[in-house]
Amino acid sequence: MEDLIDINELRSLFEFTLKVKFGKTIESSRKEERYNALATAIMAMISDKWHSTTEKFEKKRKAYYFSAEFLVGRALGNNILNLGIEEKVKKLLEDMDIELNELEELEEDAALGNGGLGRLAACFMESAATMNIPLDGYGVRYSEGLFKQSFVDGFQHEDGDSWIKHGYPWSIRMESDAQVIHFKNQTVLAVPYDMPVIGYKNGVINTLRLWQSEAIGGFDFAKFNNFEYDESVREQSRAEDITRVLYPNDIQRAGKVLRLKQQYFFVSASLKDIIKKYKNNFPEDIEFKNFSKYHAIQLNDTHPVIGIPELMRLLLDHEHMKWEDSWKIVNEVFSFTNHTILQEAMEVWTIDIMDEISPRIVEVIREIDRKFIASLKDKNYWQDKIDGLRIIRGNNIHMASLALTAANKVNGVAELHTNILKTDTLKQWNELYPEKFINMTNGVTPRRWMAYSNPKLTELISELLGTDEWITNLDMLKNLEKYKDDEEVLKKINDIKYENKVELAKYIKEAEGITIDPNTIFDVQVKRLHEYKRQLLNALHIVDLYFRLKENPDLDIMPRTFIFGAKAAPGYFRAKAIIKYINEIGRVINLDDRVNKKIKVVFVQNFRVSYGEKIYPAADVSEQISTAGKEASGTGNMKFMMNATPTLGTYDGANVEIVKEAGFENNFIFGARVEELAEIANSYNPIEFYANDYDIKRAVDSLISGEFNDNGSYMFLNIYNSLVQRDFPERLDQYYILKDFEAYKKAQEEIDKEYRDRMGWAKKCFMNLVNSGKFSSDRTIRQYAEDIWKV
Prior knowledge:
- By secondary structure, the chain is an alpha/beta fold.
- Strands 1, 2, 5, 6, 7, 8, 9, 10, 14 and 15 form a 10-stranded mixed beta sheet that branches. The chain has a 6-stranded parallel beta sheet with strand order 18-17-16-19-20-21, sandwiched between helices. A 3-stranded antiparallel beta sheet has the order 11-13-12.
- The radius of gyration is 27 Å and the shape is globular.
């Protein structure tokens, strides 16, 4: 990579960019201008290598990752790391009296995702480039992201996340590749913005192409001149709305239409782009006989599944192919990743909403469904079994069924998750297509989540191994196991963790205005807010601890700081109620001098990738406490593990594989398992736990006792009713919080006891670290490449 980035040339280009873009010198420029100029200079210097990677893979079999989310985080630091120029850039900037860290902190996180789904997609893209695998991503360039979260009186408040309002130097507008997208009542322009995905020190740069929706006509001057000011920009605004916000609120029909329109927009543009490139590269193949030989498309969850009928439409109507030939291509090209067993997350659209997007797509789906039903009848399937499998049921189109019908491979994302899909959630499909189902346990990239986020730990690992090759071969960490009883090494593990905690405490003080003590246990739960992830279980345990400390201020516990980070979907009332409850618990505890030396609660605002980069290396306890069988995999658990943090978790998702690798003795597994919950599903009565356990009743009653204030919103009453109110219209405590409460409490007490043995705790941390190799996304992406994409 030395020939790619010449540091002297970078300085010249940096100074030149400041001059032509901002009219400034190094001395007169502002920090924001310096950041922009440095990023622009790096983009210019990698352009040739980026182009050569594109050319290298142009006429070879290639994979494409279709995803509604790519949570890439900040680009500057990670790109410099992967280019292998981190120290040189630091030195270059120091010579100009500029700190790299200050420039990094100026960069907005790219607001292109929400949680694990988007972060996984970003990890896969980076790993593919590092592994020299031809993989390009296709997604949406959301101008306002999911939302920027803040707390007002403890309530979640949402604002637009305007990450591109000052421009974004890490992407290139490729207007010549724009595509026209036709909806039933609207036509818009899809304009691509390309972002480089830089492999680690190997010169490979793949592409993430994100589509932005724009009006074809734009501003209507005649209407403006006629004093119709709002109408003059109406078409422009309606077009831009399509890519304005990730996951528009869909509790009303208009939101549902916009969300589906967004999905169709990006898959249609992407498929048109792929077809255009194929026709340019292989003009002789007018019948598309070799199309599937060169293309593998991975559908990341159900959001891009509308691409299946869209490719059929393009092949039938634009390329004038026969149905059978088109369907064969669709079968050979598409594979599908299922990320959930929750029925509400498997998208279902009514026919009238799909028709509002594209009547022709409805026709294609109807024909796919008709032919699928005919094939089932040929297999002598009974009607009731057919009804449970078909794509169109009543007035609803089931997108998961569409994917399962068409895809050549269907994968779960953890061993337990895939097992549940095959034996329960998608059992009938597995019986029909057993050859399609395959497991691909998730992973995360060690470049961002170790080498970049935790440089002190990275330095220690390289020192112990005598090489930094482990950064692209995480299995090498296993060679460190010989140090598991080495007190000097274990002390260094504790020292590094403490230094990271000091840095996080400083950042939280700056960002949240709350002082926390790095000498306390940092007990961390950071993930999307959903009831099945059970932030409420964590909260109720804190309330129980609070009451016990009030009763006995001398209670012998290790001082602990509980750190939360989560966003709730804007329309998800109970999730937002849980956020308010946790914030209220924190407010009361943090102000109570009787207890706040022993426990504190922090709910960080706007949790995102760059916040995670500070939190994961500093955690003492990784909370992974979802209801058993509900978490497909999780990836936060892997990031914590790589950063030498034991898991406090249920036997769920990838936790199962984490404890298999690192040992039950080095983690804290509690609670009911999938099999037990299946047995009691129809008989479970949380009121029995509530009535017979004083601690549970006292904690649950805090929701209605006035101990904590929901400002008259009735949010806490809603939570209370969902747990124990007999007349509540939903099934009570459907995520088994009260059942698992006592087991969770005992696991927390075990942590309190084990943490006091500092060398023993360091060994648990170390054993998690050295056994985390399996959870590198490099391993996952190689499996995709070999077993699904064949690239």
